Amino acid sequence: MSTRFDYGWDDEGGIPAALWEHNLRRALTSKRGLATLRDLEAALLALPEKKLIAGDMAYPSGAVCAVGAYSLYKRLQRGEDREAALLSLCSREGPYETALEGQRYGMAYTLAWEIAERNDEIYGGAYTEEGRYQEMLAWVRRQLAAAEAS
User: Fold this and answer.
1) Which of 10, 104, 114, 115 is the most buried (most CB within 10 A)?
2) What is the DSSP letter of 58?
3) Local confidence pLDDT in tens for the 150 residues of the chain
């Protein structure tokens, strides 16, 4: 299985882990973050096939990763052609472009990165495409439930 994430970091240009975690917590619990999670849930539920790919944003066949599902959902809401939107997503490579694509459609960068990393690394090799979809949907719903409970 391929991945968009390379963990051979050299510590140049990165932010401290504690700051990243703080930004992620804020992105998950803010009004914007909760709206993003609701849109991601809707995007996942709207997929014709309940599957998520890993290692790429999209395939011309229509298969997408979690951030790809979100981006495609937002593009279709704006009236874009599905085929054109998918082809555009197919040209995105690597974790930075994936996070920027999420950001382009309203996600906080750290949240887009977290979702892409979760899609590829946490649920990547251990799950089938169907299992990855189920795990991602369950994670989104857990985040929403936790926010509602607090």
Assistant:
1) 115
2) B
3) 444 444 444 444 567 778 888 888 988 999 999 999 999 999 999 999 999 999 999 999 999 999 999 999 999 999 999 999 999 999 887 888 999 999 999 999 999 999 999 999 999 888 999 999 999 999 999 999 998 888
CA angle 137, 140, 141 (to 5 degrees): 85
- Say what the pTM is: 0.88
Phi, psi of 58 (to 5 degrees): -160, 160
Q: How many CA atoms lie within 13 A of 25 on its CB side?
A: 6
Distance CA 91, CA 82 (A): 15
Residue 112: Cβ within 10 Å count: 26
* The two three-digit tokens of residue 83, written as one number: 């085929």
Alpha-carbon dihedral angle through residues 90, 48, 74, 136, given to the nearest 10 degrees: -90
Q: Is the dihedral of CA 13, 15, 20, 22 positive or negative?
A: negative
Please give the Cα distance from 50 to 52 (Å, whole number).
Answer: 7
